[in-house]
Amino acid sequence: MRKVKNEYGVIIDYDIAVAFMDGDLREQIHGELAPCTNQEFFDEYAKRHEEKFSEIWELAKENPCY
User: Fold this and answer.
1) pLDDT averages per 10-residue partition of the chain, 66 residues
2) Residue 14 burial by Cβ neighbours in a 10 Å radius (0-12, 13-18, 19+)
3) What is the pLDDT of residue 12?
4) How far apart are CA 49 and CA 1, in angstroms?
5) How many helices (H) and strands (E) does the chain have?
6) φ/ψ bin of 24: left (φ > 0), alpha (ψ from -120 to 50), beta (otherwise)
7) Which pLDDT score is estimated for 34?
């Protein structure tokens, strides 16, 4: 399994993280950022999710529930 860490050091399965992403936002980031590492993509998605939805993405929280 591919793993990434959120800013709190919580290890997240990358494939699960992708499944929890907003499809439109994920595709937008992919078009602008790829190629990049999974970690770079995860970090950018968390940042843009908060900007777009005015809330912290669940998997970016200190104690994510999924």
Assistant:
1) 93 96 96 94 97 97 92
2) middle
3) 96
4) 24
5) 3, 2
6) alpha
7) 83
